[in-house]
Amino acid sequence: MFVHNKQLQYTVRVATPNPGLANLMLEQFGGAQGELAAAMRYFTQGLAEDDAGRKDLLMDIATEELSHLEIIGSIIGMLNKGAKGQMAEGVEEEADLYRSLTDNGNDSHITSLLYGGGTPLINSGGVPWTSAYIDTIGEPTADLRSNIAAEARAKIVYERLINVTDDPGIKDALIFLMTREIAHQKSFEKALHSIQPNFPQGKLPGKAEYANIYYDLSQGEENIRGPWNEGAEWQFVDHPQPAVDGGDGRATVQLADRDFQVVQQMASRTLSNPLSNPVTGADLGSDIANQQHH
Amino acid sequence: MFVHNKQLQYTVRVATPNPGLANLMLEQFGGAQGELAAAMRYFTQGLAEDDAGRKDLLMDIATEELSHLEIIGSIIGMLNKGAKGQMAEGVEEEADLYRSLTDNGNDSHITSLLYGGGTPLINSGGVPWTSAYIDTIGEPTADLRSNIAAEARAKIVYERLINVTDDPGIKDALIFLMTREIAHQKSFEKALHSIQPNFPQGKLPGKAEYANIYYDLSQGEENIRGPWNEGAEWQFVDHPQPAVDGGDGRATVQLADRDFQVVQQMASRTLSNPLSNPVTGADLGSDIANQQHH
Amino acid sequence: MFVHNKQLQYTVRVATPNPGLANLMLEQFGGAQGELAAAMRYFTQGLAEDDAGRKDLLMDIATEELSHLEIIGSIIGMLNKGAKGQMAEGVEEEADLYRSLTDNGNDSHITSLLYGGGTPLINSGGVPWTSAYIDTIGEPTADLRSNIAAEARAKIVYERLINVTDDPGIKDALIFLMTREIAHQKSFEKALHSIQPNFPQGKLPGKAEYANIYYDLSQGEENIRGPWNEGAEWQFVDHPQPAVDGGDGRATVQLADRDFQVVQQMASRTLSNPLSNPVTGADLGSDIANQQHH
Amino acid sequence: MFVHNKQLQYTVRVATPNPGLANLMLEQFGGAQGELAAAMRYFTQGLAEDDAGRKDLLMDIATEELSHLEIIGSIIGMLNKGAKGQMAEGVEEEADLYRSLTDNGNDSHITSLLYGGGTPLINSGGVPWTSAYIDTIGEPTADLRSNIAAEARAKIVYERLINVTDDPGIKDALIFLMTREIAHQKSFEKALHSIQPNFPQGKLPGKAEYANIYYDLSQGEENIRGPWNEGAEWQFVDHPQPAVDGGDGRATVQLADRDFQVVQQMASRTLSNPLSNPVTGADLGSDIANQQHH
Amino acid sequence: MFVHNKQLQYTVRVATPNPGLANLMLEQFGGAQGELAAAMRYFTQGLAEDDAGRKDLLMDIATEELSHLEIIGSIIGMLNKGAKGQMAEGVEEEADLYRSLTDNGNDSHITSLLYGGGTPLINSGGVPWTSAYIDTIGEPTADLRSNIAAEARAKIVYERLINVTDDPGIKDALIFLMTREIAHQKSFEKALHSIQPNFPQGKLPGKAEYANIYYDLSQGEENIRGPWNEGAEWQFVDHPQPAVDGGDGRATVQLADRDFQVVQQMASRTLSNPLSNPVTGADLGSDIANQQHH
Amino acid sequence: MFVHNKQLQYTVRVATPNPGLANLMLEQFGGAQGELAAAMRYFTQGLAEDDAGRKDLLMDIATEELSHLEIIGSIIGMLNKGAKGQMAEGVEEEADLYRSLTDNGNDSHITSLLYGGGTPLINSGGVPWTSAYIDTIGEPTADLRSNIAAEARAKIVYERLINVTDDPGIKDALIFLMTREIAHQKSFEKALHSIQPNFPQGKLPGKAEYANIYYDLSQGEENIRGPWNEGAEWQFVDHPQPAVDGGDGRATVQLADRDFQVVQQMASRTLSNPLSNPVTGADLGSDIANQQHH
Fold it and tell me: Are C232 and C143 members of one domain?
């Protein structure tokens, strides 16, 4: 069960409203790497996790991400103060209104003010949040790797947001949020390492003869190699050929008996026509047919 | 530039058509962890990558994933052989047609036969592929972590698909594909480690006082801890409080002068009414208003 | 700030796993009327709400809906117990596996097991959750009406889910959840009525001459009227005509000077051709052109 | 059956082309609260409605909303006059073209000109229209509540659009459209009240012990109450506890016999390995494993 | 302006309810090739069309497609008669309810009954309708080609639907709808041919040296040629090479002065650090870093 | 199998970075008419095509479109050079950064830099690519018509992009790409004509009595006719009436016996109530009910 405290996890101090900046901040509210995505990622994993320790970890961090969602949403709300009213009131001349609304930032926020009035769950480009952003697969070591990567990406977006504002209060809150992503990333790394072995994830091992091959499929003059394809453990295939299994490289199906019969039926029978006055291309579309034939 | 070879990278042998199974295979064709997602993930990263070695790595694997997309698509095409014709022809009784089409698997494939006729870029539930599945962020170490996780997830989906079929030819091809994901995952791990330091990714460090804290936000009787929140490097906060910055935990904005004026204007002025015969709730909606007031 | 308690708001007792039923329950987890939609609807409204009382109301209910999301997700997790493992292991014959997975319910859940392994944020048809489900507009009386309607719809979906299961523990939890929707609906009704006047919502009144008209635009023999279009307050227009404003019913634009010049320029000038060897339909596509002309 | 009249329901007079403004108007063409959403909402309800009077009401208003869609689309078309041609022709210098196109409004319309050339079914932020905007549930009193709310929201968006333009002809047409939403809202209110009882909607009543409780889940210093949670009819729960049913607040499943056997099987058996040369994390990923273990 | 007639354009006679079949019919209601897509395709083109004759053509057919949407929606409504009530009432045993609902067809319709109760704007797989299905580009000859293709596809889907039902009344109505698509396709062909020249569409001609080349990019043993790449008008390139422009086949940018300065700045300066206590990978993530370095 | 060559098919020369222009170019990278849509359209058709010649054609062109995707993506990458770094570094003052980023073009690219860092698969408005753009239906003559139309649309978008830039190197590459669309369109035309008859596509002919009718459903003063509805082959219906089949224009279902029983059951029985303390609108919502009744 969740409980809410009216105080934010981190105090939000905004120097001055700035709807253009509000819009950029939406990236971490309703964007792909945003706090809702993070919260729902860990929450859904936590629900399905059987291990009590990891379940607890996931619920702890899911709850914190919800609290972060509240912080970033509060920043957006403060940055939009006034702008919402201006749009509702039309207190200025048309040109002035646009200028005041589009100052400093991209202008998708006009859309967000038009239809949401403040803090809609969209990204900075106006795209609605979708759970397609969440890549939970239901296998702990795969999911922990996904979580590590998700925290890494979120850290980068916060870094970019910190760089597009001069407001010290916002910068301060964003640095807190960014730092927490680093801490979460570290927790997930630790949790992954605590499961041994964790590679390859899942139950089926790979097939040995294909597991150490590197296919050099992008060809040309320069061929800069690195630890990802050179050294004793790699078999580097210079000019990869198709049909590595030794087959003919085709896709074939051995038709079952029943299907052969269907095919034969099709060849021999006349379609029992469901139409009273059949019209064919020959008479109906003669004009077009003629144009297109010769 | 891409070039195509009419032979597949791996020979596809399907024992017998099975449209229900075809549908499940769509998960790796047009699904979130499927081969298009993989190919486009690495291809878009490769386009923006400045490092020649990593660019090459990304293009090599992107190209292989396109070749895998072709393999899995060919399996689906073979499994649908006959079924497409049956739907087009209506050669059987209605009930028989359904039975033959829904045998062994979930029946979303009827939709795919209805509107796509074979190999649409949808997942096994019929959902169209979206680039929202791709989480490229444009920072190498974050993206490599995303790639490692993506390969881990794809490996799991292949494992599940291997488990839902008895067809030896399909099993064989899927094991090849699964093994290649393992190899790719290993390459991306190596590439990540070759960048040092790689944590935290990006340019801004975190703020020290929040970087080692673990907030125990999910509370209750059991509290099972692990390396993700215990040990010297962690500061475990038992009952986290709001406003960790020492502020008041509120969101406030210091209104700029201009905005104060706007607010005052709003208070004092009368809206220059753009309507000829203004109608208010009082007269227009009196009936409803009455119903709702008392 | 949010805090989580490891105990659920309502105890979940599932008699036996049933992945088909789990899938139907997804409708209230990741569906349009589900608990995430409810929680995010009130949470985003609460963030932007200036009135302290209504902000509190919205946050109270948003928090409860998150707790409901956890309940319904826990039911789904329990119903999928075993099924997830079976898909991962392939312990049964292919046909048996399908039978056990598709028993009692629709089979989109195979997809959810394939790619999510348990509790993905999708609806019962496999469609990812989208914030397009949330219709917050940022005006309190409009939003409260939206909330009343949303609770009404959620109540109906719970009713349908209660009717598709015989499991007493699930029925019991669903009745709790359904009842809470009724309570929330009542709270939102009260909050709407506490704002007076609340109709028409917003600041601009309507134009009197069009506010009481009912246009009978669907015509035919039967014309059953009711309080929505009959009585003293309605002006019933039997055969509505276009151009009710008395104009000509056309769309016209009075081109500004600058645009007239552009049009004249277009007529007189020769396009400065950016191509070295221009190819036109006449020579390039002669074959097709001929086919298509006569 | 529908019939179309070439005259618009309301005459559209546009003073001067303004592609930026055209773009904002898209909100009511292809946006969430726009006229297509309205028309399809009532049309789909009308198709499924059994009551002849309400069916007629729904079809009357659906038809009017289609006529409104035509009005707003015509405004957009007029506002884009010239701009479409300029983009097609490239008659100006690059910088001038941008300036002329982005004047007065947000610039997503460049996208709409690029790919749609005028009146695409997108919102003012470029997001394609989706039927996820329509929340019809198939129960009359719930749907009528949804309709009341939808009209309330649409009224607000029209109000905002009226405020962002100075063009008197456009203002005039928008006021007509806004007023009609008010009239429709009133009709739907009347229709809802004509069904008695209408609360709670559906067939199942709620469970008495949970129907009048208000859970104060958002806690903190201020606690401003109102008619939504105070008074004789409410039971206000100050510090809500989990497991309100008196259970243990856990999610449990009583595994059926068959599943117990599966679990036992899993524990005892050796997976019949489908691979010829199994490769495990131990040998394949030894390098990575080592890095990750210690 | 639109007007509606309560009679359908074509009488709908359904022999017996069949919710599974209803679901398949959704493909032409809310699917990619369905009647809403058709109606909106022509309607949006008509709004932006300047030529009075073609505008009329587009509005005539748009209006007919709306009437078809009503026909197919009515079929779906009739096929769902009873099923909606059964789900609402739970009048049968759980297993019986499922059996009765899933009989004859795919079972996504359970979802549509759950959340829509009858005729939602989704395809037969449950995917919400999106205007991404509409490919209007705002150039008459391109759009007419799109319309011809759209009618061709719709004709095929109707053909498949006719083949999956034995109900004579439904078959009859579907054949009417299918035939009308043929008629529309013919009208659009005629309209396209009436614009001369119509190839290449638009204003810019192609560049002669690349307009008649056929690149044989898919290579292998078999090379079956046809009129699409053989004959005097084609220049068949057997082994296509990159950089056909004679350049170096690389992507380069000549950095403007300002950017060079930025790059130099980056190299020389020290980031003015916005953090009080900077934490780097070296101290913060030392544990992880160590694990990952060696 | 695919192979990649590190050289592009066409050399990309960009004069100077311009992130605003980069954003517009996204339309052909991740937009509806872009190169990914083209490549996937032909690739999926090729996989399912049985005719060896057409399969080869489709794979040849699919492969070329992938090479075009690489060209357009490389242009975008070059245009974003520097901008990505500026956002990551925050080297300029806030206002300067915005100005430099939003210069010349629409500003959705700030979003693409924020979350993608360069070349995300989105359109110029920031909308993620979706396979809903692909309209493959699995019938060769319908699909070839779709391909012809798709090439026609892509040609127009390239034309518009050529017109919005003055950069000679970009113009040059775009003209190459545009010309190749013309060549592909011609190939698909030839392939369509090589299948005879090709109209109407599919197997079922239309019904003669409805195939030559033109319904004049958009009525009003002007009625400009053309070859699409006049001449001997058309039967022009001036004032179309409903129920063209001679029926009653209603939708009816002949309820099967079983359903009649269900209806009777509903009427007579008392719902076996699953609730312990049933609460109805009468007591629970009395307050609201009262407000709404009178």
Answer: no
